[in-house]
């Protein structure tokens, strides 16, 4: 089959690779209909992850049709149109049973080998290095989906592929941010980053009843998109004193909930954890009202210098984080998509055949031509 | 990981596996290697650390009939095992550590597990946990490099 593979730093290629096969009883094989770029791919694309190998297939977010079913699968049959959550999770460990699928204990093929890194491994993920607990990604004609009863979700007929695709990761991440922030009716919510996750966080905040939602970014096209599709108020940080503006628009209190959805820099060139420059996180901590909640999303692997911890303690802030969403919200989000409460197809700014995957990633990486997400069709 | 506190030790009622099947796999380590992973400032004579996982099932499901589950059973004679109910109704704390006096791995076994017996113990405990909680041990994808014909 054809798949979009990492070849070297900043070099991708569509290659002929072996077809996936059922490796466990709870696996299914999915024929991919759509796959999307995501921000977590960019550190990999830069080639600074020492665990990545030439030939690894990228793609954490995808949707397709079930074509093969393992004997342990109960909820799916061939022909099902499914969207697959980016996290691979077993559904049976303590974390999964609490709904914390992104913390699953049993989704690495060799967890003992990766444990020392952070002390405990998180869930598996598609399109990530195998040595880091990853599985071949969705930028391919076919994908193996482990624990399919847990991570694959049948798409309602009323939801088309372009919309449902974002139920794989971006929409549940945005929803999770609103949940972690405990957004309540009447809240003022500020979001740093107007990419797909930031925009869907804004929409989730609106659906949670937020009175005002403000999105901070420097890309005019993304800000306009957030305003148009999510009902958010745009703040261009190149032209605005963000802190002053947030105070003004929250009656001097500061936002009740601040969400940082700007992604993270790639690991350093030695493959280690980079030292992040937490400009957005710092601004969010300083902006948040007393007793408010700051939520940091994304693959912020690194250590952080000059983080205003004193502001967290002085003002009794709650700091919460998530790298990937859980799977529990996906059916609810698909239902909201079916009811037209949640529209996501506008985020697919560039639709390309898989053969143009390298060009799609270039657009996405450089945010060129107004690219928010590139979506590929095999 | 700190040393596991007092644990109720269950009877080591594992099956008497055939010694031929275990040779070179179970009796893996000599004493000095068991002292590994202790850090330069630790007493080299200190016993090996316990490796421990929490399995989100009650002890009777983790060790049916009080017997070691697979694949832990394959390490019978090479590790000691302790089990206790986890606090807060969180299942079972299953701990194992290499037993003093075991012999080092040889041949293929040594190649596979390297010189850190704790890695094999941890991997085994993780597999027990996966089998009990998920019903299977997850296998990695095959490599995508088998037929690397560049197309684009």
UniProtKB/TrEMBL annotation, chain A:
One of its GO terms (molecular function) is metal ion binding. Residues 25-150 form the Alcohol dehydrogenase-like N-terminal domain. Its cofactor is Zn(2+). The keyword Nucleotide-binding does not apply. Residues 196-338 form the Alcohol dehydrogenase-like C-terminal domain. Keywords: Metal-binding, Zinc. Pfam families: ADH_N (PF08240), ADH_zinc_N (PF00107). InterPro entries: ADH-like_C, ADH-like_N, GroES-like_sf, NAD(P)-bd_dom_sf. SUPFAM superfamilies: GroES-like, NAD(P)-binding Rossmann-fold domains. PANTHER family: DEHYDROGENASE, ZINC-CONTAINING, PUTATIVE (AFU_ORTHOLOGUE AFUA_2G02810)-RELATED, ZINC-TYPE ALCOHOL DEHYDROGENASE-LIKE. This is Glutathione-dependent formaldehyde dehydrogenase.
